[in-house]
Amino acid sequence: MPTERATRRVALFATCLTDTFFPDTARAVVRLLERLGCSVEFPEAQTCCGQMHFNTGYRAKAAPLARNVATVFAGYDAVVVPSGSCAGMVRHVYPDLSVTPPPTYELSEFLVDVLEVEDVGAYFPHRVTYHPTCHSLRMLGVGDKPLRLLRAVKGLDLVELPAADSCCGFGGTFALKNADVSSAMLADKMSCVLDTSADVVTAGDNSCLMHIGGGLSRLRAGVHPVHLAEILASTEEEPWAATR
Amino acid sequence: MGRNPVTWLGSPAFPTAARTALADDQLRRNLNHATGLIRNKRAGAVAELPDWEQLRLSGEAIKDEVLANLDTYLLRFEESVTARGGVVHWAADAAEANEIVLRLAREAGADEVVKIKSMATMEIGLNEALEAGGVKPIETDLAELIVQLGDDRPSHILVPAIHKNRTEIRDIFRTTMPGTEDLTNEPVELAAAARAFLRRKFLSAKVAVSGANFGVASTGSVVIVESEGNGRMCLTLPETLITVMGIEKLVPSWQDLEVFLQLLPRSSTAERMNPYTSIWSGVTPGDGPQNFHLVLVDNGRTDTLASTVGRQALRCIRCSACLNVCPVYERTGGQAYGSVYPGPIGAILTPQLAGDMHDKHAASLPFASSLCGACFEVCPVRIDIPSVLVHLRSEAVAAKPRYSPEAIGMAAMSWVMAGPRRFHVAQRLATAGRLLARGGKIRRLPFPGSKWTDSRDLPAPAKESFSAWWKRTRG
């Protein structure tokens, strides 16, 4: 159960993609953290971490976005991000842009390392497979934290994803600049997802889920992409319902 | 100075070359099989060593020490080689190196040279230069021989013919090797045919040309690490040995070499130790080649060394572990990279050695990655390939016209997202995108959005963004 640390000031960094396309994920983070005793704030001046600019070679255009994040989230004890990729950008790249990163945690890190919980009291009666996103795996090193959280979810049937640590082919602007290679990588990822017969594919990043889900939707495959936060927020009283 | 042959003349930009490669089903099956096999074997070989991470740190530190004091180590190496009877030549670029080797081969009276598999000689286009000068180069590494006989190009650093399966190899042998009409596609038979073909060459060649895996500065020793033993033949039988070596290949001492002799075999062939390690220091009277020439090649390395972020590419020991784990390489193969250095390491090494980001092909290479980071994870000398890729992307962007559509788009997005006011207006405008959607999905967009929607649906922006919801309910 939550420690006293949970009552500190926690800020949600929704990320531009989740804020605009996947508000359910951000609402789920709020619901989940509040259920665990945190007081969650959403600083309204937040925008984007600047990763797309930085990774595409527009370093100078990423800098003002990074400075905005540092200003907006200054003074919080913890900034929680439902994205391994954006958390990695803030923590590992900001120093290179001469911007001091605020204390930033990817969601599963915050739950397991800071709140020290694995069983968050969730209920999700579906067959689920988990895709470990590249940046959460290799940049942040979240390891099996998301899996530990998923294993503790009541009703959830967790099936292992074959070749799980292979990239889904998103890679930000890579998906557009090298669309053919990206699609070939996606095809293999989708085939692994379909092999599991899961109803739901989950991950800690909506960007990768948008990619995998976009491919599955094109095939009318009937597999839902659902962010980890939405699974963990789902309870018997208020179960998750498909909205996308 | 002419064009740097590290990139193949006329190579299209990576996305175009990749599209062609992706359409080759046989190539994809061959690659998927071969990279999967070697990837798993490597993971097993590395897992055996409890101090693997310490070895990687040592490898990185030794290479960084050499690169930081390259002038000192190079002069020490030259002095040691010369003192032991070798002759050292310095080549600023590919053309100079090729001239030196051709001249030395002619002086030795050779119209044919046997070659050990070598990335440096491939990088400078030595074979083409020798042939133009009337000297026939014979590749003696099995895979290089397959590539050479098939009039093909290499597609992998360690296994240059990885894109060919054994039936394709049999067909190449049948058409190019006399007396092989009945050859089957059994690996043992294929190897025996190559052996018989090469044995005659080893016994008649006056000159051998090699690369170098390592040079030991303190004693002037050159190290070749190999699997097949063809290298040992080349290094011992001919009278004259010419070694072509990139200037970054040095280690200070034999103690340092020990680290790399552990890192390299496990990373490249997934072996605890490779079958043949040949080490020689200058000339030994009555034993082996009596004339030893060492050609030290720069060919863009000094310029690469000048880049604080990019110079770590010079730590590379050509193991190919990054190729075998790369999801892009696994699907496109090596030839799509248009260079003798393919895969993740090629994407950072080739453009730096070529040194011209105005070249569309070279500038496309740093973008040939999803930045998944698998390469960095396996690199035995800890080259942070994703960071170097991003750094080189900045250089590629800087070389582009300032007002390209992409640059304008990026600048506009940065302006919009620099603060909440414009961002929230943009979010409200984005909800208009819902008009393009059916069932919450956008299925077709005009260019450049079509690059996404050609193979994937795009979710429509939410009716109400999270920030708008928060303001309405909690603000």
TrEMBL record, chain A:
InterPro entries: Cys_rich_dom (IPR004017). Residues 10-90, 128-212 form the Cysteine-rich domain. It holds the Pfam family CCG. Transmembrane segments: none annotated. This is L-lactate dehydrogenase complex protein LldE. It comes from Kibdelosporangium persicum.
UniProtKB/TrEMBL annotation, chain B:
It holds the Pfam family LUD_dom. Keywords: 4Fe-4S, Electron transport, Iron, Iron-sulfur, Metal-binding, Repeat, Transport. Residues 406-472 form the Lactate utilization protein B C-terminal domain. It comes from the Bacteria. Signal peptide: none annotated. Residues 76-296 form the LUD domain. The keyword Cell membrane does not apply. Residues 313-383 form the 4Fe-4S ferredoxin-type domain. This is L-lactate dehydrogenase, Iron-sulfur cluster-binding subunit YkgF. It comes from Kibdelosporangium persicum.
